[in-house]
Amino acid sequence: MGAIGDDGGWREANLARWDERVPIHAASPNYDLEAFKRGQDVIPPFEAAEVGDVAGMSVAHLQCHMGQDTLSWARRGAARVAGLDFSPAAIAQARALAEHLGYDAGRAEFVVADVYDAAAAMPEAAYDMVYVSCGAIDWLPDIRRWAEVAASLVRPGGFLYVSEFHPLHFSLDDATGSRVLHSYFRGGPLVREDPGSYADPAAVTVHNTSYQWVHTLGDVVSAVAAAGLRLEFLHEHDKSVFARFADMSRAADGYFRFPPEAPAVPLMYTLKAVKPGRP
Q: For residues 173 and 182, what is the distance between their CA atoms, to the nearest angstrom?
């Protein structure tokens, strides 16, 4: 188990975990790469509605994993998309997907880099939208530094859009999600040993150590504001794109929810913040 500190032990452990799981995810029905190649759009409808028309825009996707969300924005008309992830295995999959879809590097480019180094690593200095999808920021220890990097990539008049799992879910029991078992306010990392993957719980894996951090809504909004962006909205949602708790089931609209008789709690949030100035 790596140690938290300047030696980067947490990063090495997380990278080994994600690199090992990329082939598992690529073969999983959860990601269904073959359906994606045939035209499946993986952007959740509520995200598409909140973001609006991206035709002609440039989009940067931080922590893009295998690039399906990134490339879905290109399919929706974005002029240029760029994805960044620290996992070479994930970026190899993303590049293969882009090639299969006929996108050259001018339309869709993917880079291997730590998200904290994104300002130097991304192919362009600034973008119309910087996009952050579910399950990204809890892998990062420094939320203020993340916000500064993300804001630096937003062009004047452009915006940051974040769609994330609500930090409250780290406090709830894994079965019903109805009991608060852990403090919402945590300073250190959550260190876990979890074999398998959310995409295939039965998968045999070796690199099972993970480090995650709980960033409260207050932490996230304050970091985004301190980075110079103006908050346009913060929405909390009683639905999820993932069955995080055992008692959740898929509703008719395709999202996962608790039973109707259960108390409603926020499961996801979305945030849009604009960089002041003219394009």
A: 8
Report the CATH superfamily, name and number, of domain 9-274.
Vaccinia Virus protein VP39 (3.40.50.150)
Residue with tokens 């993303």: 94
168: which 2 tokens? 């409250």
Amino acid at 251: A
67, exposed or middle or buried, with CB in 10 Å at 0-12, 13-18, 19+? buried
**Spatial distance between the Cα atoms of 161 and 196, rounded to a whole number of angstroms:** 30
263: closest CA among 192, 196, 182, 172?
172
In the predicted model, is pLDDT for residue 141 greater than 70? yes
Residue pLDDT, tens place only, 180-201:
999 999 888 999 999 999 999 9
Rounded to 10 degrees, the C-alpha dihedral 228/231/232/235 comes to 150
In this structure, which long-range contacts are made by residues 135-138, counting pairs with CB atoms below 8 Å and at least 24 apart in sequence? 135/164, 135/165, 135/242, 136/62, 136/63, 136/164, 137/63, 137/162, 137/164, 137/215, 137/220, 138/164, 138/165, 138/167, 138/170, 138/212, 138/213, 138/214, 138/215
Question: What is the share, in percent, of the chain residues with pLDDT greater than 90?
Answer: 85
Decide: residue 205, CB within 10 A, 0-12 exposed, 13-18 middle, 19+ buried: middle
- State how beta strands 108-112 and 249-250 pair: unpaired
Domain boundaries, given as residue ranges, for the chain = 9-274
Question: What pTM value is reported for the model?
Answer: 0.95
**What's the chain's Rg over C-alpha atoms?**
18
Structure tokens, 224: 């985004």
- Non-local (6+) Cβ contacts of 252 within 8 A are none
